[in-house]
Design brief:
With 296 residues, the chain is α+β, with helices and mostly antiparallel strands. Helices cover 52% and strands 18% of the residues.
Length: 296
């Protein structure tokens, strides 16, 4: 059977789908929320469907700019709703099986967007975040970013540079070898299971920082190897089902209670030791995560 001619809207929808993975990666980096990233893409599709698509020369560039503007507005609205900045906010983690993410997740995690990096991005001003994410990660020229934030190209370059310095200072890159990272995290999990305090100390950096976001204003920051090790030993008493996983492309762990996610932990390993642990324990947000990938 011959195929019916494609309508203009169907053709446009196909073009949009070709760019969806890239656009979702942009929105996730900008917002740190999977739900909000999907909302941003819906808004972008709505704008495209009401535009003169035939007049758009570079659809990918046009859509990236539109998603960037939408995310910028969402960040500004989010900031205006908060009377005080959150002490600890762990963005939505992307959970994958320990043997690797699927293609959709790989696109979302382009250039190793770890939890630690996303936490630092949360501390940037919206315009700083836009300039850094679009230029440093996705190669958008400053001349294209500047009109989005109402600044000159030179001022936009300065914003990105300032953001870059903050990111490098607060979230230096982890060890490059994923196998070594996994060995360190596995050793931590084994020591925690056994209640082996000395074993925990051996794999923790002396200045390790643990940040836990429990939602509803429940947040903790623990610093120092001994304090983090004591917390890990205490956590063992809960008797949870702890499974290894990739969390934002790096070795991590998902703990389950009665088959439901209880916490998701991302680890940063530098110099063969754990320097940072970011934990999401917000029950409402965890319920929205897809952890079925761990069963395959």
């Amino acid at each position: 059977m011959s195929r019916e001619p494609m309508t203009e809207r169907e053709w446009l929808a196909e073009r949009f789908e070709e760019h969806r993975r890239h656009l979702r990666a942009v929105a996730y980096r900008m917002l740190g929320s999977l739900d909000e990233a999907d909302d941003a893409l819906q808004q972008a599709w709505f704008r495209l469907s009401r535009s003169d698509a035939a007049a758009i020369e570079n659809l990918g560039g046009w859509l990236t700019t539109v998603v960037g503007r939408i995310c910028l507005n969402m960040l500004k609205a989010r900031k205006s709703r908060r009377e005080e900045p959150l002490e600890v906010h762990v963005p939505d983690p992307v959970v994958s099986p320990a043997d690797g993410p699927d293609p959709e997740q790989e696109a979302l995690l382009a250039d190793s967007v770890g939890l630690a990096l996303l936490v630092v991005l949360e501390t940037l001003e919206p315009a700083e975040r836009l300039a850094f994410v679009l230029h440093d990660t996705f190669g958008v020229p400053f001349d294209d970013i500047a009109p989005m934030i109402g600044r000159s190209s030179a001022a936009t370059r300065q914003l990105a540079s300032r953001a870059r310095r903050r990111v490098r200072g607060a979230a230096p890159p982890p060890d490059a070898d994923l196998t070594t990272q996994r060995q360190v995290v596995d050793a931590f999990m084994a020591a925690a299971r056994e209640g082996d305090f000395e074993g925990l100390i051996a794999v923790l950096d002396p200045d390790v920082v643990l940040r836990a976001d429990g939602g509803a204003g429940i947040a903790r920051v623990i610093q120092g190897a001994e304090a983090v090790a004591r917390g890990a030993v205490a956590f063992r008493q809960l008797g949870l089902d702890v499974r290894p996983a990739l969390v934002n492309g790096a070795p991590g762990a998902v703990s389950l209670r009665d088959g439901r996610p209880f916490t998701v932990a991302g680890f940063t390993v530098r110099g063969g030791r754990i320097t940072r642990i970011d934990i999401l324990g917000d029950a409402e947000r965890l319920e929205r995560l897809d952890i079925t990938v761990l069963d395959r």
